[in-house]
Design a protein that fits this description.
This protein is α/β, with parallel strands linked by helices. Helices cover 29% and strands 20% of the residues.
């Protein structure tokens, strides 16, 4: 049984969907050479571990790790270029409780040998074309994968700036009989759920 906590952030600009970093051809090698990189699978998950899928540059997750030194944090990111920024944050903050995994959410069952207490989905690619709906990270097949690696009382937090993806997420959660603990279409101004919202780069730039 999976518990979901769904958030939506309104009034953002569509320009964030087209933002791209300049490709760094050395990024993957630099990450693989780091002790903060997960390279051997399956990786053992300790208790009180949080996974962010689509970590990007790692601002949110690194701040969580800094504030919660007794917990473990793993950032899964498909692209090495933004993940290199996360690695630099880890090194600068000297975080011993955060790791980076360069990989694909489709293969998530291959990566870990235990279950997470918390999973974050932050500003996932909305894949707006209808024919691409199965690529959305809140599609029911992905939700079933997350359930497989989520502890009994675990939670999934979802933040998005895309109205269509938000509605799609709600529909998919209902399709897999998830328990939606709370959801709002205005996280920053009308959130009645008690938690600390660590901001991503997108939230800071466009809020």
């Amino acid at each position: 049984y999976v518990l979901f906590l769904v958030y939506h952030i309104s009034n953002y600009f569509d320009t964030i969907l087209t933002m791209r970093l300049r490709h760094n051809k050395n990024a993957l090698q630099l990450i693989n050479d780091s002790n903060y990189s997960i390279k051997n699978f399956p990786f053992h998950i300790e208790k009180n571990t949080t996974l962010e899928i689509g970590m990007g540059k790692g601002k949110m997750l690194s701040e969580m790790a800094l504030d919660n030194p007794k917990m473990q944090f793993i950032g899964l990111e498909k692209y090495a270029t933004p993940a290199l920024f996360a690695l630099k944050k880890i090194e600068n903050l000297k975080l011993n409780n955060m790791r980076i995994l360069i990989g694909d959410a489709n293969k998530i069952l291959e990566y870990f040998d235990n279950k997470f207490d918390t999973i974050w989905l932050t500003f996932s690619d909305p894949w707006p074309k209808k024919r691409h709906f199965k690529r959305r990270l809140v599609y029911r097949d992905f939700l079933k994968l997350y359930k497989s690696i989520l502890s009994e009382n675990g939670k999934i937090f979802f933040k998005s700036d895309n109205d269509n993806l938000y509605q799609f997420a709600l529909e998919e959660l209902l399709a897999v009989n998830a328990n939606i603990i709370y959801h709002t279409n205005d996280l920053h101004n009308k959130c009645e759920y008690d938690f600390k919202n660590y901001l991503t780069d997108y939230e800071i730039k466009f809020n």
